[in-house]
Design a protein that fits this description.
- The protein is of the alpha/beta class.
- The protein is 37% helix and 18% strand.
- The chain contains 12 helices and 12 strands.
- An 8-stranded mixed beta sheet has the order 3-2-1-4-5-6-12-9, sandwiched between helices. Strands 7-8 form a two-stranded antiparallel sheet. The chain has a two-stranded antiparallel sheet with strand order 10-11.
- The two termini are 22 Å apart.
């Protein structure tokens, strides 16, 4: 029996973030969520920390500390994505305001304190929004970098190119300077780019499976993904919306669902044209050392089977 991995989920909830958090909270054998840190991204910070608490309450897990973090990127104005996620970030279901209070203190200080006090190599960071909180913690306390077990993040794209600009994926684009710090940190990194997340599409059949769970969680997830998918169906002409962020949690539970390559990933921070691009050396054409496992493929049916089975537990 393996002990569950201790993780901090760093998030800007949107609907797919919500599903990622629910999957983690439903999987205590594999994952121990020790804290949730909110960052500005899909929607501004007051909504992301509120949404994180709404999701914990939906899951019936009100003992998880939720911290508010950085309200803007390191070097630029905040870009948000209400056009995708709706004005609340969780449009779709009608969920009550949270009774849970925010935990006192700043998310960055919480990340630093946790990494300093827990044994080295026992905390995995799971950023599923812009990387501002993680980069700020690394800048403020460089001693914690070597203590991180692994970073498993949703962000970037290579073959699928960008979803917010022609070249950049949203999470990286919002704060490329932060992404650059994280990718240069030397921490082992697993990346879930659009190349893999666009292969886990919520079709009608898969969404019906969520609804048929029949619980408040199952119904809320079905309503969230229905709201979220209208945008992607229109944009990509696909049969459903990609569930980006739950790829991070699913990888923690069943890594054999995913395939990727160890490659070098650099972040473009200067160009107006390609700012926020994740330049992945997929074909190994440079002499830059590999710094990330860049995931490119997934067993989508296995992913949805896992997701449906776990959500039914909540």
């Amino acid at each position: 029996m393996t002990t569950p991995r201790k993780i901090i989920i760093d998030t800007d909830p949107g609907q797919d973030d919500a599903v990622a958090i629910l999957l983690a909270l439903a999987s205590p054998e594999e994952i121990e969520v020790i804290g949730i840190t909110a960052v500005a991204g899909n929607v501004p910070l007051p909504l992301t920390h509120k949404n994180a608490r709404i999701i914990c309450e939906l899951a019936g897990k009100t003992d998880i500390p939720v911290y508010a973090g950085c309200d803007r990127p390191l070097a630029h104005d905040l870009v948000t994505a209400e056009h995708v996620h709706g004005k609340t970030g969780l449009d779709g279901p009608n969920l009550p305001d949270p009774q849970m209070q925010l935990t006192d203190g700043h998310a960055v200080d919480y990340i630093i304190d946790t990494l300093r006090h827990e044994p080295s190599g026992t905390i995995t960071l799971c950023p599923i929004g812009p990387l501002t909180n993680i980069a700020t913690a690394f800048q403020k306390a460089p001693d914690i970098i070597e203590k991180v077990q692994e970073i498993i993040l949703m962000g970037g794209a290579y073959f699928e190119v960008g979803n917010i600009t022609p070249a950049a994926e949203f999470n990286i684009y919002v704060d490329p300077e932060a992404a650059d710090i994280v990718f240069k940190s030397g921490v082992p990194i697993v990346v879930m780019p659009l190349d893999v997340t666009h292969k886990v599409l919520v079709t009608k059949q898969r969404n019906d499976a969520f609804r048929n769970i029949g619980t408040p969680v199952g119904i809320a997830v079905a309503k969230m993904t229905e709201f979220f998918e209208r945008f992607d169906k229109e944009k990509y002409g696909s049969e459903g919306a990609p569930l980006h962020d739950p790829c991070v949690t699913a990888y923690l539970i069943k890594p054999d669902l995913f395939k990727g390559r160890h490659v070098n990933v650099e972040i473009e921070t200067n160009s107006d044209l390609t700012r926020g691009m994740t330049v992945a050396d997929w074909w190994d054409v440079t002499d830059r050392p590999a710094n990330a496992l860049f995931i490119g493929d997934v067993d989508a049916d296995g992913f949805f089977a896992l997701l449906t089975e776990r959500l039914a537990r909540l």
